[in-house]
Amino acid sequence: MQQHEEGQTPALVRIYGTPQSSHGYAIRDFLHRSDVPFEWVPLVTDEDARTHAGVQHLRDSRLPVCLFPDGTRMERPTIRQITEKLGWFTNPSRSEYDLAIFGAGPAGLSAAVYGASDGLKTILVERSAVGGQAASSSNIENYLGFPKGISGAELAERAREQACRFGAEILLARKGVRAEFPPGKRIGYLEDGTKIIARAAICATGVEYARLGLPNEDRYLGVGLCYGAGTSEAVLIKHEHVYIVGGGNAAGQAAMHFAPYAKQITMVVREDSLATTMSQYLIDRINSARNIEVLTHTEVIALSGESKLEEITLIDRNTGREWRAATHWLFVSIGGVPQTDWAVAAGIVRDEGGYIVTGPDLVRGHERPPNWPLEREPFYLETNIPGVFAAGDVRHGSVKRVASAVGEGAMAVALAHRYLAHG
After folding, report:
1. Among 141, 143, 311, 135, which residue's Cα sits nearest to residue 232?
2. Which 8-state DSSP code applies to residue 150?
3. With left for phi above 0 and alpha for psi between -120 and 50, is residue 392 left, alpha or beta?
4. I need a surface site. Which of 49, 209, 231, 405 has the fewest CB within 10 A?
5. Distances from the Cα of 103 to the Cαs of 108, 227, 312, in angstroms?
6. pLDDT digit string (tens) for 108-156?
7. How high is the pLDDT of residue 236?
8. How far apart are CA 366 and CA 128, in angstroms?
9. Which of 220, 259, 215, 257 lies closest to 241 in space, CA to CA?
């Protein structure tokens, strides 16, 4: 999915805003990852603002403005308001479920499909858009059964439809903030006060994009600096010199997606080569692309610009040489940080990086986890709380691939069945 162009599916949302709007970027990113066709109309003069958006000037606090096919006009809408308008915002229909899944990335969607198809009363809770980080991938080419590849957003939308057809409930724009585990219950509390009660639960919350850790990073978010693949921005970077930080598959896919649009793409990689972190098929394509260059053992150490990103400072890790480069676009794809802050108060064991520890990794020698109440050892994807499982990127020791996340989601449901049947 990308900005609507002639010949594509008609736009469901038209967005009017300034190019220097981080709020506009957040809306574009959400719609793109949700596979919703949209048209972005940039406003560059006050006259544009008056003529197209019905506001007085470019600094009007009502921007960005979203227009829908039925004539609805929304001024500076939140993601939740857009979710409600699209008819996606719902409340739980039951007071209790067999299975609650938190996180609608590949692992969570897979768990929802298998849980619901097995007859479990299943609910799936997602804090943002369906698909997680995978939804921002422009083309997943090494996923089984799709020889020509499939976009992350399309794969996620197909999985969402499949889960719903089997009867799973999906709550979007709802963030889980804490959990409690009284006997026989697994309770998740959402940010808006909603309480989800289930007999078993799966944590598939994945990871959040890692940041560069620079002093003024937040200042440029959405106004030149984007975390992840940023594929919603492809048609906005025409004739620009784009920088991508990262050497993994996500960064490689972003580079190939941007290549037809950008004048030049520079990949900034800490390692000595791409071989240790990227699939060979992507390396081959990057090497053959005329407008992609790779700077190895290099880092971005500073950002600068007035109202938007205008310049970055880089350093060669081997020689210490520093230099500045003019650019309006920096995409950061350097891994992620697990979303497990809630697990601390809930008593769930994490590793030093914050990933949830499961199964055999909880057992030291022949000693089960502290306070483990059962005679058996934890199942493979089970946490130190019986009936609470973890799947996908959030789990300690997981393989960071879409296929493995899908497999773990299905496996977690099978193990949840065993727990529900025998404890």
Report:
1. 135
2. B
3. left
4. 209
5. 5, 19, 34
6. 999 999 999 999 999 999 998 899 888 888 888 889 999 999 999 999 9
7. 87
8. 40
9. 259
User: Encoding tokens for residue 214?
Assistant: 């620079």
Q: How far apart are CA 266 and CA 255, in angstroms?
A: 8
Using CB atoms within 10 Å of the CB of residue 345, give its burial: 0 to 12 exposed, 13 to 18 middle, 19+ buried: exposed
Strand order through the sheet with 241-245:
225-227, 329-332, 241-245, 264-268, 292-295
Amino acid at 380: Y
Q: pTM of the prediction?
A: 0.91
Q: How far apart are the first and last CA of the chain?
A: 44
Kindly report, residue by residue over 83-115, the tens digit of the pLDDT: 999 999 899 999 999 999 999 999 999 999 999
Amino acid at 319: T
Number of residues that make up the chain: 423
Place of tokens 């509390």: 189
Question: Which residue type, as a one-letter code, is found at position 306?
Answer: E
- What is the per-residue pLDDT for 134? 86
Please enumerate in sequence order all residues whose Cβ is within 8 A of that of 248, keeping only pairs 6 or more positions apart, or say none.
Answer: 277, 278, 333, 334, 335
- Which two structure tokens, joined as six digits, stand for 207? 């990871």
